[in-house]
Structures are given as structure tokens and as C-alpha cells.
Amino acid sequence: MxxxxxxxxxxxxxxxxxxxxxxxxxxxxxxxxxxxxxxxTTPDFRPFFIKEHFLFYGFHWRPFDTWIGYIAGRNPQLLxxxxxxxxxxxxxxxxxxxxxxxxxxxxxxxxxxxxxxxxFFITPATxxxxxxxxxxxxxxxxxxxxxxFLYYIRNSRRKYLIWPVLVFIxxxxxxxxxxxxxxxxxxxxxxxxxDLRTLKKDILVGIAxxxxxxxxxxxxxxxxxxxxxxxxxxxKTVSNVVKFLFSSFVTVDYIYLLHQPSRNLLLAAxxxxxxxxxxxxxxxxxxxxxxxxxxxxTALSLVIAVGPHLGTVYSMMHTYAGLVxxxxxxxxxxxxxxxxxxxxxxxFLLWIIAAVGIDIHLTxxxxxxxxxxxxxxxxAISQTGTPVNKAYxxxxxxxxxxxxxxxxxxxxxxxWGLAARHETNYQWPExxxxxxxxRTADAFRQAERLGRQVxxxxxxxxxxxxxxEKVYVVKK
Length: 476
Description:
This protein has 20 helices and four strands. It has a four-stranded mixed β-sheet, sandwiched between helices. The chain has helices at 2-9, 11-27, 63-72, 76-79, 82-105, 110-122, 127-130, 136-152, 159-173, 180-190, 196-219, 234-249, 254-258, 265-284, 293-310, 323-335, 342-384, 410-413, 418-423, 443-457; strands spanning 390-396, 431-437, 462-467, 470-475.
């Protein structure tokens, strides 16, 4: 009886829990592509107690990623990427539950809480994270960040101990977790949990937390090379802000809208038209009240949350970092409708239809991208015939357009040959080297000539030539 009452009162969370097995079933069908092959959540066969599993390495200090890679490495055929998907989906459900708790703590009523919680769980803006394989860092960085805020506003004597610890744990999940050192006091001030004097003091504490993390990074042994994509630029920042605004607030099928081979402007328009009434009620119609202190502080917190990405690299997966704050803005708007509005509920129902339809399409596209990589791996293995120790990969530059992690370029789905190693249960080849040549009318013959030269002048056992979705093997 009590369970039924809870499900009735908090149907947003109840629906999220009920839908999670379906979401997990769909995610488990997605295979690794692109960055999934390059991250530290891939199977790691090294002993666990080494510094790389705890300290700074490469670009990042994310020990939880390396732990997942270590676990997956115990039985890669069984656990990779299944274990990764379980972690990501579980993290998203945890964030959803924490979002509900956060909204209740901020004083929102049940209607605003339930609608906003379900909005967070199923919005297509989360799918680039939820359907990815190496994105548990994003889900748990957000979860620890929300937990830090919930503890911060308790104003207990241990606040200045527990709050920094939780922020630091969020940061060890992913670097943007550090932003909660500033978000916590700003958001708390917006909802009157602290006064202006405490805000000023705790902003300084938050800056000290960030400085302590920067000092730790500076003192740890590391070898960092800044990738050109991460270099800031004015045009890049403007472009990233536009991407951020659209991906966070506009629900539309971006595959139909932006991915040229899949483009269908009619279907894109249908998804937008279905979602538009809810977007209007929540993000457009109440604009006169957006000067409210709650929304201003939430909006500032949103900019801080996604700020690390706006000046460097912003993609659809980075939307996740700020979605809890978008959800709070939505709850503020919904709360203004004092009585249950049939038009608002109808608008939300239409939005759900659009969101679920887009989610299904994004999932299907992700599955197909992964299957292309597996098919290419099987081609390479079957044509190679017998196990080899060293393979050389020649990629003919591909002009095939991509969209985030949903529609991936075939050679990136192939993972620069790593998909083949995965399909052999990491038995062979032990070494894979690769190079990319320009796509021209004579590119394939050029690749064959280069392949024969490599076989004659080096110790490689075979050459794999990747041309779009096809793999050709040159052997000694």
C-alpha cells in the first residue's frame, strides 16, 4: 500500500525506474565506436595496483574510468561493453532520483517535480551520454555534484569538510565536477538557503577548492600534450554557445535535421512541432518572470556547469553536465501554473511522444554504427585468415559525415583496427599501427603500393586497407 502511494505521489521517478530495464536492454546492443576504443574504460589487462589506476595520466585524472577498464579486462568478451552500459544507465537513473530529491528540497510541488524529473530522464539531450560506452564519468560527476549541493544546504558543522570532499569526488569522475564548488553557493543563494554574506564567503571557499585541485594537478607527475581541438577561439566559443542552447532547450531529431545521409526535414519538423508546445509553455511563455532570483542564479550556474566545454570542445554529450539546471528552470516555469492545466499536460504528452520517438531513432543509429565496426572487424579477420602479431592499417580518408556518437564514420567505428582485436578476444594482433592517406581517384592503388612497401621493409605481417565500410587485406 505504501509503495503504491509513493509511486502515485512520485510518478516521475516511478516511471523512470520502470523504463530503466528497457533503456538498459537497448543500450546493451550498442557496440564501441570512435572514442570508446581510445578511453581508459576499455579492457585493461595490467595489474591493478599501479599508479595509472589512481593518479593523473594522459589528459585526465579519472581513476574511476581506469577501474572500469580493469574490471572489463577480467573478461572482455563478457564485460565489454556490457559492464560499461550498466554503469552508465545506473548512473543516469541515480541522477534522476537525485534530481527528484533536489527539486523537492528546493520547494517545488509534486506536479512540477514529477514532470521535470521525467523530462530529465527521457529528454533526447541526455542520449549522447546515456547511449555512450565511456560516459559513466559524466553521469557520476553530475550525481556527486548534486549530492554535494544537497549536503551543502544542510548547513551542518561539517559542511566545509564534506562539501569539498564530494566536489573532489565529482571531479575525479570528470573535470567539470569541479564546477560544483561554485554552483553550490550560487544555487543555494538563489533559493534562499544562504544569505549574501555567506554567498561571498563560500564563493571564496569554492575558489580555494578549485585552486587546491589545480595545485594537485600541477604537483602530480604527468605528460600532457594539448590537442588542437581543445585550443580556445572566439568563433569556436560562439559556435559552442549556439550548440549548447539548441541541444539543451530545443527538442528535435538532430539526425534528421543535421546528418546529411539521413536528412529528412519533414520528419525533423514533425518532432519539433510535437515538442514545441511544451517548449513554449516552459521556456518561452514565462520569459517575463525570468528575472526572478531563482532563475537568474540557476542560469548562471548552468553557464558555469558547461563553461569548461564552451571555450574548448562542445558536443551533444556535454549537454548532460547542465541538464539538472535546465530541469530546475523547467520546474520554476511549471510551478507558475497554479492549477493543473489541461493544455500544459497535453503539451507534455506531445513532448513525450516526440522525445521517445527521437530516443528510439538515436538508439537505432548508435546500434547501426557499432554493427558497421563489427562487420569491418570480421572482414579483416576472415581475410587475414590466420592469427598475426603485427598489422598495419591504411585508412583512405573518409568524407562520410558524422553526428556525435550516433552516426559515426566507418573507420572510427572500426576503431583504427581495435574492433578486430576485440573480436579475437584480444588475442591478436598484438600491435596495430595506422596511417591515413588523402582520398583521391587513385587513393586505393596508392594504399596498395604503400602496403606492399610496408610489408617489404618492416616486420608487419599484413596490411589492412580501409575504404569506407570495406576492409581489404594485403599479405606477404
